[in-house]
Specification:
26 helices, alpha/beta, six-stranded mixed β-sheet, six-stranded parallel β-sheet
Amino acid sequence: MPEAPRRPDPQLERLCIDTVRVLAMDAVQKANSGHPGTPMALAPLGYELFTRHLRHNPANPDWPDRDRFVLSLGHASMLIYSLLHLSGYDLTVDDLTDFRQWDSKTPGHPEQGHTAGVETTTGPLGQGVANSVGMALAERWLATHFNRPGHEVVDHFTYAFCSDGDVMEGVSHEAAELAGHQQLGKLIWVFDDNRITIEGDTDLASSTDQRPRFEGYGWHVISVGDGEDVEAIGQALEAARGEVSRPTLIILRTTIAWGSPNMAGTAATHGAPLGDDEVAATKANLGYPSTEPFYIDPEAAAEWLRARNRGAALEAEWEARFTAYERAHPELATQYRSFMAGRLPAGWNTELDALAASDKGNATRGHSGDVIQKLAAAVPNFIGGSADLGGSNKTDIKGAASLLAQSPGGRVIHFGVREHAMAALMNGMALHGGVWPFGGTFLIFSDYMRPSIRLAAMMGLPVRYVFTHDSIGLGEDGPTHQPIEQLASLRAIPGLMDLRPADMAETVEAWRAAVERTDGPAFLSLTRQKVAVLDRSTLADATGLRRGAYVLAEATGGVAEAILIASGSEVAIALEAREALEARGTPTRVVSMPSWHLFEHQDQEYRDAVLPPAVRARVSVEAGCSMGWSRWVGPSGASVSIDRFGASAPAGVLYEKFGFTADNVATTALRVIEAGNSRRRSRRAPAREQSVVIDPAGLSPGAPM
């Protein structure tokens, strides 16, 4: 690795640092929106890291063995934008002047995939540091898999800057505890100890001493008492890299808005512009060479751009090492390139067809577990686990080692009872690249994961969630564990693929869809209870799942008077109800709808073919809340659903009590048909039609059972 560059004379170094402060002040002032104080305080740290320590190449932001840098305190976005511009990334002064404006490269919080050099989307505090743990975990796994003596082609650090808000958020506890347990020695957090939050001094809400807290997690902790001392900051970063058996927290004491003569150290600088007068006063106080907005001294600009030359040399040196590695280990080198490109190996799903035909009756969580074994055998970088529910979620990879500090090449991740950290770590692993992460828990606990799931969808990350125990069918654990609103809530997240399979065949197709998706996350909603074996010789094949919804069983004569739409475990109930309806002379179609997301993305012609507009007697059947189903059943349809919390009882009892029976579904369909016939007979203009929600137990929402 090339040596760190020489230090410029102190005056030039100070000018380089103050340039970051000025750009942050000016951008926030022009936008009349933003957070100037923290970028001003962390300017020395940013300068020291980006020019002397961070292995990065601004000309190639996606160089695979670069160090990862995460600005977890995303509100301080002008810090990273200034650092990226000055060190030569594709971010111009014009982009800085467009801070927080429509369609700019400099949004209010950093967005991955939108701005070159931004590794992850941050803003919700705690998310970035948790992502960084996933990045470090992926780095170590890949290093274990690929590095050979004399050929260390995976060898980089992950840095994260974090704030009081980051370390207050619960997800940071979950992630930091796990990082310490995993002994991730290439993970370095720098804590901006400015003791200020939006409401004022941190002692209004916290009295935690972060040093013993992180030491208790098993971290190496370094304190730097003066945030302006770049040499002390550099020494701390070097010491952090020298500690390979523990992650490191550097506690950096800073003054928010340092340099402002009247506002430094005050909460007022956290989330609002300084004002024109204070910006001018600060520039004078710093001795900055110009009051012109966004002015960058040419000598400072030239000094900053040394980072670009250093980065090019670092990447060239790595490329030379990789060439030697490729000669010595050609198969590994080919696999490394494939992993980092996100390619699936040839024939990865050839074993799945036989599995789909082997349905002997099981819960869909069991079917999913069988698929996971086949995927793990075919895709060597398919790694993941569960939030302490591996046996229940069926997410364990049989015969695989646990991924621990003592076995860093293992494939089963024990996330512990840390659902939020699990989801955030999976994001970090996917962002790092080279691995295919998955994680499991009960569907009800997706509530703990929602912020990270939302960000995965926003970033388009290929992560897969295995959510089991997906309805009242889990039984005796009762209403605290029985999901009601979770499916509707998750379906409301833009870009999140929902997959609720009905049998083994659909579970296989669901996993295929989830694995093949590279532009966003997907979740499988799976049962605890056994589901019926669907006779696919008399029904449509399960490949229709790939279009979200499909005609599973056609009405007699091909002309339906009623359509029953169901997902997951309720598909078998709909099929049984169809038999009853057809026995009464009512031609009935059954539509399996395992994925709203996929169905929404079909063309209108296909959607109309599955749900013909002329057939208005539609009934949805799903053991969750009715919210959203009106879109598919229409204003004249009905939903057999549950819009109250569940109860503690065996699954079969609950399904009967809450009306998830073939008799109730058939009765509901007949009621909808008769209501339609009555409207037609009335020959009057109908009143405003509304979809009907069937409350099968005759209970009002929230009423005791």
